[in-house]
Amino acid sequence: MKQALQIDFVSDIACPWCAIGLSSLQQALKNLDDSVDATIAVHPFELNPDMGPGGETIVDYLGKKYDRTPEQIAETQEAIRERGASVGFTFGPRTRIYNTFDAHRLLHWAGLEGKQLPLKLALLRAYHGEGKDTSDHDMLIQAAQSVGLDADQARNVLASGAYADEVRAEEQHAQAMGIQSVPAIVFNQKYLVSGGQPVETFENAIKQILAEG
């Protein structure tokens, strides 16, 4: 008999390790499919809440935030590409970082429509795989439509500012829980795994949680 497992995945679309972590987690769940019945809910976290229109180049942003040279940034991106490839996620030509608040609002609405995880995956691929602008409403609507959501409803959500309060409240809840970096993965509301961990790490964590359950 399969055991139920609630997974709360706190992340930002702009975060490459979140894409890696979600891919690793999904592979771990696939490997444990005979023993676990998992539900994944995604929750917002903004790495760049003050990012303005048009975004900023990755080199400029990481250079200022972490005091990295362009060469160091290139090395890190190559390591990220390799880690992504190991779990089936393809990183493409990302050159800029964008604001993600409207994308998080759309994801909140998608959760009400039962399409949150598919939209999250579509947005991760659009940004990290194709370098698309996560603040661009046309792109967000297209992503929503690609997973079966209504384009007109998506447009209305984005234009109206809907779910802004809900997103802010979720972000504050994550901060109150002590989450300061992402991805942060909470199992059954009490076990925390942080970072874009390998598949084996997630498998072992899930096995231990199920054994204790």
TrEMBL record:
InterPro entries linked to this entry:
DSBA-like_thioredoxin_dom, Thioredoxin-like_sf
Q: Name one GO molecular function term.
A: oxidoreductase activity
Q: Which Pfam families does UniProt cross-reference here?
A: DSBA
Q: Which residues does the UniProt record annotate as the domain DSBA-like thioredoxin?
A: 6-207
Gene3D superfamilies, from UniProt?
A: Glutaredoxin
PANTHER family (alphabetical): GLUTATHIONE S-TRANSFERASE KAPPA, THIOREDOXIN SUPERFAMILY PROTEIN
* Protein name stated in the entry: DsbA family oxidoreductase
